[in-house]
Design goal:
single chain; Ribosomal Protein S5, domain 2; Alpha-Beta Plaits; alpha+beta; 10 helices; binds adenosine-5'-diphosphate; binds 4-diphosphocytidyl-2-C-methyl-D-erythritol 2-phosphate; 33% helix; IspE
Length: 292
């Protein structure tokens, strides 16, 4: 028996940091939404009880360091499953990019294994298990649009924003999430995004207000380390993007536009500058294929 599950990338429409916590994590407030740039996670039942994994991107770990592998091990141990699984990941989301590719693969594995191993768990239960793998996994279990609080694992669902195109560009640099959070000086944050205004813009489907409400306090940290990320931002702005922001800890930058003609203009301007450019739609609501 084999199950195929979609694992979409997320973007941060806002990312605010409120405090550094004693456990080393940061207290955040983030509005996140999924886009239709997605990995595919195939799960094939193994009767011998083994968990194995292979990924189309050879540099992604294929053992317990892989978030999807970790998800399978956690579920098997917790529910004392005798069967095993072979996980195949078809990687389309760039790695270490601020788009939660690994977290989304883990979430897809949780949703898929819930079916393959007949566990009958709710999405809330899967999200709670996902939080043990990483802060972004609970959001990825649900998909759609949500406010994430705590260290990112406390999810409040939001309606779909006004539909739009998303152009994503990832420069060829690796960014470590832990390093970016580690360099942030919370007391020195000059400008916090308004999470409340972002939520209002989503509820009212006000695209222009949504673009004006975008903000990410990790952006300055990554931009200072990597001037190329700033150049991509400027190029998108000059090419007529309605809203431009770095996603998560970066280095991917995304542009939002409503008019299709602008998509081509921005795409062509970027392609001369950086190889990894993607055009996607905002999914807004959870994709039917994603649900357990
Ligand atoms: C920045 C964000 C925004 O969505 O995404 P990415 O850039 O990774 O996509 C997330 O907060 C990343 O979530 P995730 O990648 O799941 O992080 P985790 O594995 O839980 O943590 C990795 C490390 O990041 C730091 N970390 C993470 C989350 C948080 N709220 N505070 C932190 O300080 C910690 O140093 C932690 O050890
Ligand atoms: N399934 C996976 N896909 C991609 N990276 C993974 C996966 N599992 C573990 N990783 C590791 O997680 C790190 C972060 O990758 P990723 O989730 O793509 O980025 P981000 O946290 O920036 O959104 C990578 O360095 C990679 O080695």
């Amino acid at each position: 028996m084999r199950i195929s599950v979609k694992a979409p990338a997320k973007i941060n429409l806002t990312l605010d940091v409120l405090a550094k916590r004693p456990d080393g994590y940061h207290e955040v407030e983030m509005v996140m939404t999924t886009v239709d740039l997605a990995d595919r996670v195939d799960l094939t039942l193994r009767q011998d009880g083994a968990i194995t994994l292979d990924c189309s991107a050879s540099f992604v770990p294929d053992d317990i360091r892989n978030h999807a592998y970790k998800a399978a091990v956690l579920l098997r141990e917790r529910y004392q499953i005798r069967q095993g699984v072979h996980v195949h990941i078809d990687k389309q989301i760039p790695v270490a990019a601020g788009l939660a590719g690994g977290s989304s693969d883990a979430a897809a594995a949780l949703r898929g294994l819930n079916k393959l191993w007949n566990l009958g768990l709710s999405l809330d239960e899967l999200a709670a298990i996902g939080a043990e793998i990483g802060s972004d996994v609970p959001f990825c279990v649900y998909g759609g649009t949500a406010l994430a609080r705590g260290r990112g694992e406390q999810i409040t669902h939001l309606p779909a924003p006004a539909p739009c195109w998303v152009i994503l560009a990832k420069p060829p640099i690796g960014v470590s999430t832990a390093d970016v959070y580690g360099r942030l000086r919370v007391q020195e944050i000059a400008c916090h995004p308004s999470t409340e205004q972002m939520i209002r813009s989503i509820r009212e489907q006000d695209f222009s207000l949504m673009c004006r409400s975008m903000g990410n306090v990790l952006e300055e940290v990554t931009l200072d380390m990597h001037p190329q990320v700033r150049q991509i931002k400027e190029l998108m702005e000059q090419s007529g993007a309605d809203g431009v922001l770095m996603s998560g800890s970066g280095p991917t930058v995304f542009a939002l536009v409503q008019k299709e003609a602008k998509v081509h203009r921005i795409y062509n301007a970027l392609r001369g500058f950086v190889k990894d450019v993607f055009v996607a739609r905002m999914l807004g609501m959870p994709d039917g294929e994603m649900l357990a």
